[in-house]
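Worked Example 4.2. Consider the chain below.
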Amino acid sequence: MLNFLKQSDAYYIYKYLNNQSISNTYPILFPYTIEDANSYVEQEIRGRSDGSRYAFSIIMDGQFIGVSALYDVNRAINTAKIYYWIAVEFWGKGAATKAVKELVNYAKMELKLTQLETGVLKKNIVSRRVLEKNGFIVENTLVNNGKYHGKFLGETFVEMKMNL
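Applying the procedure from the previous section yields the following structure tokens:
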């Protein structure tokens, strides 16, 4: 279900992220362009080469449907942050839960990480539930001060952690 992100995935990233519904809960700018997607994939591939980021395409029934990733990987203290998104037309099919499970397993088994963390909009109950199903617990809540590309100012975020 997870494959390392590659440059040819940029088209699908553009196609699926250029959607207002995703932009409403995910820290990207809308409209999302093919140039944005190409730059994003290049950044993720560079991050994999230096060990700071590991981004994966999420594949369901042979089709690209989203991305999950580890970032801010810190080998000195064995921690990382995670993010993920699923194309709108694949919401509600269990793909996010499975992708996060595989990402957690990769972090634990391949990278030997001991703790993961993430943030989610408090109003994004479905995404929060995906994380809880995979063992993440609420650590803190905070009001956004501009951390997410200047989006979601004043919105409440839930910070979640998981010990592996």
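The domain at 2-163 is CATH 3.40.630.30 (Aminopeptidase). The chain has a mean pLDDT of 94. Compare this with Example 4.1 before moving on.
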